[in-house]
Amino acid sequence: MIYSDIHAGGMKVRISSVYDDGALVSTNLIGSKGLSILVDVDERSILFNTGHNPRYLIHNLKNMDRGIESIDSVVISKGDKFVAGGFGGLIEEREQPLKLYVSTGCTGYRTILGRRSLGDFKENDLITVEEVDDWTQVTESSWVSPPLVDESFMVIKTSKGLVLLIATLSCDIESILNAVKDRFGVYPFACFGGIAMGRKGRNAPEVGRALTASGISDVYLNSFTGQVGMTQMRAILGLNNVKDFYVGSMVDY
Length: 253
Fold this sequence. Notes:
253 residues; alpha/beta; Metallo-beta-lactamase, Chain A; seven-stranded mixed sheet; 8 helices; 25% helix; 26% strand
């Protein structure tokens, strides 16, 4: 299945990795530290964070048959250069209108969006900015959460259940899972993104217990988790339940 057939094929949701330390082999895709996830849902394309280097971000989008004009909305969930640093360069290359959702919990988010401030983007006629401080619906089946500590997350409704997208996990995973349960009445069944495990993966047992208790069966981890953390998560949750999410990887629901 090619990258560009999501809407034509009538699928409900596709989640694709655009920015990660690693990239699929035998492709022209670039791996680099950072995180960006593309969500195709409700016939809209949402970019969850933008990675660190805009040149790599744009290169990967184009080589995944997704031009930069195909993006309808961008969600910046955390004020970290490795998840938000690519936004300014992305905007400089675009000519079409764009909706930007920015978590108010992002530390330093007013300067992390390239060299310009958030106010500069608000004055741009092509960009509509919404600062997120409560549950905010992006499309019929997607939401951005209020910030927990300094980071928001996304929830996507699929035919199989709820999918959780996170960046680097500023707070404990149990708080995020409980926030989803409180808002939607159920826990997510899948989780995508980076789960920081602490030095030498010391937080892995706690994270594993929380994921197991909530019934999450699909975990796709970004490189922010670290190799030690990845290994420990596979030992706790099982090899088949914890997958890498390299650039070019796609999951359809």
